[in-house]
Design brief:
By secondary structure, the chain is an alpha/beta fold. Helix content is 42%, strand content 17%. The strands form 2 sheets. Strands 3-4-2-1-5-6-7-8 form an 8-stranded mixed beta sheet, with helices on both faces. A 6-stranded parallel beta sheet has the order 11-10-9-12-13-14, sandwiched between helices. This is WcaI family glycosyltransferase.
Length: 412
């Protein structure tokens, strides 16, 4: 099959949407499909163009057999709602020359696959789909407009109504709509997109590469932490949706404990704020580290006694945390903020593979950490690994999706 992928994030980004889109593109290319990707120069989650790509404009590279067409874009140093809108529109505007080349001068693709967010990126692949008469899948990793409303990033009702209308237009005109969880499917159905038109395409984990390791093989020695110390780990994007300030508040309660460490590994817009909070409180047991390379991920996850998967109450069920897949595959126990009724709460509770707490509660977080570091968590860890092996296998999920793509192409 000849497939054209649109998305603002792609490999070599190590976290978030780019990780999954990149792995999908590489996997499909490895299966012999002709894969072309239109994406930005990598910048996430640091919100800084990666060193190897700085100064580069429009160019094409080969990643694991996929032809990746890179687009320059504006990347703000400090992210807010207005700058993010400019950031996304700069990417879409800079796509146009490449898009026109594919539209008029290149051999027709069998299918177009577009990843949201940004949701409005969908207009260009949708126009390609209609003009060249090929099916299009809109893949929703994050309900961006819902999140902007619930997190009060955008408060103008008229503007929000316009964005919801544009989002509905793209989804309704797409051949199929895929998304990553049952909760997201339900929310998309509420928008008027029938369940029959949707495809469940969950985020996955390579359970053969990400696996449980003994603490002796972790990064504790590299981080200067003894094997007997207690370690609470947050790893991933340091953004506004997570409400990470609560970690610093709880860490203050352990200020006099020399055997308890809080590790924050990652990058993002909230990092400087968190570091300033740590400095203000003079917390020596809170340590910040950059994202670790993929080959060190199992060792990083083995460093923790307990993991943190946090998000604000207003973001509940809008985003299925991608970091959770790695934690489960590594046989980790996570403290997860989720409200009853959300798909995240349901799956953690049903399979008994983590500690569920109320979002945005410093008291609940502190209580759960105290329980976790003073009790045996082996049953959670065993259940987590078993769930990853049964439901999150990269090979199984991508094989099923490949069949879905074939069916869509054959029936279009």
């Amino acid at each position: 099959m000849r497939i054209l992928i649109f998305g603002i994030n792609y490999s070599p980004e190590l976290t978030g949407i780019g990780k999954y889109t990149g792995e999908m593109g590489s996997w499909l290319a490895g299966r012999g499909h002709d894969i072309h990707v239109v994406t930005a120069v990598p910048y996430y989650p640091e919100w800084k163009v990666h060193t190897a790509y700085q100064g580069k404009k429009w160019h094409t590279e080969n990643i694991d057999g996929a032809k990746v067409h890179r687009i320059p874009l504006y990347v703000p140093e400090q992210v807010d709602s207005k700058k993010r809108i400019i950031h996304e529109f700069s990417f879409i505007l800079n796509i146009v020359p490449v898009w026109l080349k594919f539209l008029f001068f290149k051999k027709k693709f069998d299918l177009v696959f577009c990843v949201a967010p940004p949701f409005h990126l969908g207009f260009l692949p949708l126009l390609y789909s209609k003009y060249r008469d090929v099916p299009m899948i809109s893949h929703v990793q994050d309900l961006q407009v819902d999140a902007a409303k619930e997190l009060e990033m955008i408060k103008n009702k008229t503007f929000l109504d316009i964005m919801f209308s544009l989002e509905h237009f793209i989804l309704s005109k797409s051949t199929r709509v895929s998304t990553i969880s049952l909760g997201m499917e339900q929310k998309i159905a509420v928008k008027g997109i029938k369940k029959q038109k949707q495809i469940l395409f969950p985020n996955w984990v390579d359970e053969n590469n990400i696996k449980p390791l003994p603490v002796e093989q972790s990064l504790r020695s590299e981080f200067g932490i003894s094997l007997t110390d207690k370690v609470i780990l947050y790893s991933g994007n340091l953004g506004e949706k997570q409400g990470l300030e609560s970690i610093i508040e709880v860490a203050g309660q352990y200020k006099d404990r020399k055997d308890v460490y809080f590790l924050i590994v990652g990058s993002g817009g909230a990092k400087e704020k968190l570091q300033q909070m740590v400095n203000d409180k003079r917390l020596t047991q809170v340590k910040f580290y950059p994202l670790q390379p993929y080959e060190k991920l199992s060792a990083l996850l083995a460093t923790a006694d307990v993991h943190l998967v946090l998000q604000k109450k207003s973001a509940a069920d809008l985003v299925m945390p991608s970091k959770l897949t790695g934690i489960l595959a590594a046989g980790g126990c996570a403290i997860v903020t989720a409200e009853p009724g959300t798909s995240l709460h349901t799956v953690i509770d049903e399979y008994n593979m983590g500690i569920l707490i109320e979002p945005e509660s410093v008291e609940e977080l502190g209580r759960s950490i105290d329980i976790a570091i003073n009790n045996d968590l082996s049953h959670y860890k065993k259940n987590a690994r078993a769930y990853a092996e049964q439901f999150l296998s990269k090979q199984s999920i991508l094989l099923k999706f490949e069949e879905d793509i074939k069916d869509i192409i054959n029936n279009s």
